[in-house]
Each structure stands twice: as C-alpha cells, then as structure tokens.
Amino acid sequence: MIPLESLPPFLFASVLLCLAPGPDNLFVLSQSALYGGKSGLFVILGLSSGLVFHTTAVALGVAAVFQASVAAFTILKLAGAVYLLYLAWQAFRASASRLDHPAANQLSGFRLYRRGIIMSITNPKLSIFFLAFLPQFAAPANGPVMQQIFVLGLFFILVTLLVFGGIALLAGTIGGWLSRSPKAQIYMNLPCQRPV
How far apart are CA 117 and CA 139, in angstroms? Predict the structure, then answer.
C-alpha cells in the first residue's frame, strides 16, 4: 500500500492544482455566484465523476496512448477546445435582460452535472497531469501499482470535492449577498448602462 509519508506531499500538490485558476473552478465559481452554491455543487459532482475516467485511464495504461499518439492527443485537445468555445458562445449570447432574471438561465442539476463530466473528460491537461503525477507516488515495492493509482485518484477526487465545494459555497454566499444588496446592484449594473 501507499506509504503514509507519501500522502502529505501528494495532498498538498493536489490542493494547489485545485486552487490554480482554470476553466473548471471558474465555471464552478460563476455558476455558484449566479445561481447559488447548489448549482456549483452539481458541477463539482460532474467534474469529480470525470476524474474517475482519468484515474482509470492512467491505471489501465490508456493515458500512455494519448501521450504517445499525437493524433489521439490532438483529437482530445480539439474536443476540449470546441466545448470551451461552446461555453464561451453561450455566455456571450446571453442577453442583458436575461441577466436581470438569473433563474431564466439556470440549468437543471442534471445538465450541470453532465456539463461537469464533459468538461473534465475533454480536458487534455488532466490526462497528461494524471499520467505524469499519479505514478510518481506509486511504486511496485508497495504492492500492485494499479491499486495504488486508484487510491491516489480517489484522494485527488476527495480533495477536488473539498476545495471546489468551498469555492462553490463561498461564491454562492457572496452572490446571494450581492443580489440582495441594492447598493451592490447599482455598482454591478453600471457597465450595463449605456449612454443615451
């Protein structure tokens, strides 16, 4: 099994990765601020489910194919880029009137969960990160490597749930406070006001 002294550096690096700005935590932040922490939690569950895919790929050695094959990596990278462009297009397409009634834009819990899974699976950086990172903390002398990779992946998923969950709850609280504050509404709507 994995030596206990290997876990603190692994967990520390995992927390740092989760805190690094990226499309995943920014999406959690925006969904939580606009629609409440519950919406962000659905996204987090989807992202975490997608991490099971990456962990399994590394454990079974499939991620090595992505790293060795330029074509496979390019396809995964393009799929991720297309999905992120789709999300950006959806954000730019939203009209100012729809922002006044955020409930009209709110996705169902299932759609948020599904979006989180797709974002996670199509993120090529995660495949490469898992392939480079997880094996560093596994050693044949400590038992079956596949089991060690799955355990490390589980720890990473737990860290993701905790860190992203904290982001979602904090953003949901702040977003709720801002939506109830008349003074904050004035300042938030200033960029939307056009000169006559």
Answer: 30
User: Would you list the domain boundaries of the chain?
Assistant: 35-192
Entry pTM = 0.73
Q: What angle do CA 80, 86, 90 make, to 5 degrees?
A: 145
Amino acid at 89: W
- Dihedral angle computed from the Cα positions of residues 125, 128, 131 and 136, in that order, rounded to the nearest 10 degrees: -80
Q: Which two tokens stand for residue 65?
A: 């194919």
Q: Are 143 and 1 in contact (CB under 8 A)?
A: yes
Q: How many CB atoms lie within 10 A of CB 39?
A: 25
Going by pLDDT thresholds of 50, 70 and 90, the confidence category of residue 53 is very high
| 38 touches 172 (CB < 8 A) | yes
Per-residue model confidence (pLDDT) at position 187: 54
Q: Which helix (H) or strand (E) holds 103?
A: none
